[in-house]
Design goal:
The chain has 15 helices and 20 strands. It has three domains: 84 residues, Rossmann fold; 210 residues, Mur-like, catalytic domain (UDP-N-acetylmuramoyl-L-alanine:D-glutamate ligase, 3-Layer(aba) Sandwich); 133 residues, Alpha-Beta Complex (Protein-Tyrosine Phosphatase, Chain A). The protein is 30% helix and 21% strand. By secondary structure, it is of the alpha/beta class. The longest helix has 15 residues.
């Protein structure tokens, strides 16, 4: 068997089984459809009382149970599948597990029916960018590729298209990884690690343990792509058995991916004097120097998979980034507007802020997820004219940044944009880098980013 190859599990059969899917977001809906097509008796349960996007599932025989999770529905199931947004310690879930009902996540469910290989990418910041670029690199090299998971299409929606020659490039969040059992990446990538999602995970140690599960089922025939510049990542990766391939721009690397004379290069111990040039740095068209690390990680996956340097360079050169990730929206009256709505934690916001030298007016705030806003004091004092805060975290941000930079509060995102626009004149940058989740005011970070862009374009 080819190393890292997934085989369809012959002993995992849900035909006729009672399966309850908890959570009717996109992953839960995809899981319910997959299970129904595999002839399971499916119940999809959801806290919301109206989920229009789930209505078509009734045509497949799926029973919708809306307005709350009933303990008996989970307890009487043969299997419970959790959507990533559902906490595994939910009382109804916990009681089902204690009663002997198997509980798995959507990512685990889908992976059991894949017949190709998996490249899984995790980290606190940069997962989506790296996942999308990795997919483009592998496609340029001639692979049959699907891209999804926590970005785009859920893995459950890709099972029907999975073939032995498919490479599934999967963005994997801590929420997805904490509920795996057999999920087995051929190549597992960990980009970075810093405090995040502490509103969901009980501690930073628990968050790290969830992330580290990406390496759990790998064998010595697999690969772990690890950020050598991040000590926390190195520590978490030590738990795995896969061969390690390091990447880093600051740490001396004798074997792995490094920066050298304006190039991303592949260094090998058997030819230290002859590194292979993979990508010229000037081929990267992404806003923010921290994104070079994401490109290095994606290029490392390409090199492991046998992609030619020319194919890697072509993919990088054509890649213009993702929506809501350091996205240049417009320039209005000499002020640039940048949408980094995906910067939902302190570390991500820090990297966004450090991408600019001066004249910066960040818009920050939302629902606090944990972390230390005080880490932003010095970077903001050196670069920002002021900070405009929104949402529930306004008092926390105000207290943390007091004395370092002027802080102005806004009642809405539209008002924040108006205030920031005036403060950024002339020649400044308005940066949406919330350092917080969006759920106090928006459905998700994408809705927040779209509203930001719409308001900016009205200004223009």
């Amino acid at each position: 068997m080819v190393p890292g190859w997934c085989l369809v599990s012959s002993d995992f059969d849900v035909e006729g089984k009672r399966v309850t899917v908890v959570g009717a977001a996109r992953s839960g809906i995809a899981a319910a459809e997959l299970l129904a097509r595999r002839r399971a008796q499916v119940t999809l349960t959801e806290m919301r009382s109206d989920v229009k996007e789930a209505e078509p599932l009734k045509g497949l025989g799926v029973r919708l149970e809306l307005g709350g999770h009933r303990s008996e529905t989970l307890a009487e199931a043969d299997l419970v599948v959790l959507s990533p947004g559902v906490p595994p310690d939910l009382p109804a879930v916990r009681r089902a597990r204690e009663g002997g009902v198997p509980v798995i996540g959507e990512l685990e469910l889908a992976s059991r029916w894949l017949s190709g290989r998996v490249v899984a990418i995790t980290g606190t910041k940069g997962k989506s960018t790296t996942t999308a670029l990795t997919g483009q690199i592998l496609e340029a090299a001639g692979y049959r590729v699907t891209v999804g998971g926590n970005i785009g299409s859920p893995l459950s929606a890709q099972v029907s298209a999975s073939t032995p020659d498919t490479v599934h490039v999967v963005e994997a969040s801590s929420f997805q990884l904490e509920q795996i059992e057999t999920f087995h990446p051929w190549i597992a990538v960990m980009l970075n690690f810093s405090p995040d999602h502490l509103d969901r995970h009980p501690s930073i140690e628990a968050y790290g343990a969830a992330k580290a599960r990406i390496f759990e089922n790998q064998t010595p025939d697999d690969w772990a792509v690890v950020n050598a510049d991040d000590p926390a990542v190195l520590a978490l990766a030590r738990q795995g058995r896969a061969r390690q391939r390091l990447f880093g721009s600051k740490t001396p690397i004798t074997e792995g991916t490094a920066l050298e004379d304006g190039w991303i290069v592949d260094r090998r111990a058997d030819r230290p004097a002859q590194p292979v040039r993979l990508v010229p740095v000037d081929a990267i068209h992404l806003l923010g120097p921290h994104l070079i690390g994401d490109v290095m990680a994606a290029a490392t996956v390409g090199a492991i998979a046998g992609s030619a340097p020319a194919a890697i360079t072509a993919a990088v050169e054509s890649f213009r980034g993702l929506e809501h990730a350091m996205e240049l929206v417009a320039e209005v009256a000499g002020v640039r507007f940048v949408n980094d709505s995906k910067a939902t934690n302190v570390e991500a916001a820090l990297r966004s802020i450090e991408s600019f030298e001066s004249g910066l007016v960040p818009i920050m705030g939302g629902r606090f997820k944990g972390g230390d806003f005080r880490l932003l004091r010095q970077p903001l004092a050196a670069r920002a004219r002021a900070v405009v805060t929104i949402g529930e975290a306004r008092p926390l941000l105000g207290a943390a940044l007091d004395g370092a930079v002027e802080v102005r509060e806004a009642e809405s995102l539209d008002q924040a944009i108006d205030i920031a626009f005036e403060l950024a004149k002339p020649g400044g940058v308005v940066l949406l880098a919330p350092a917080c989740a969006s759920f106090d005011q928006f459905r998700d970070y994408a809705e927040r980013g779209r509203q930001f862009k719409e308001a900016v374009l009205k200004l223009k």
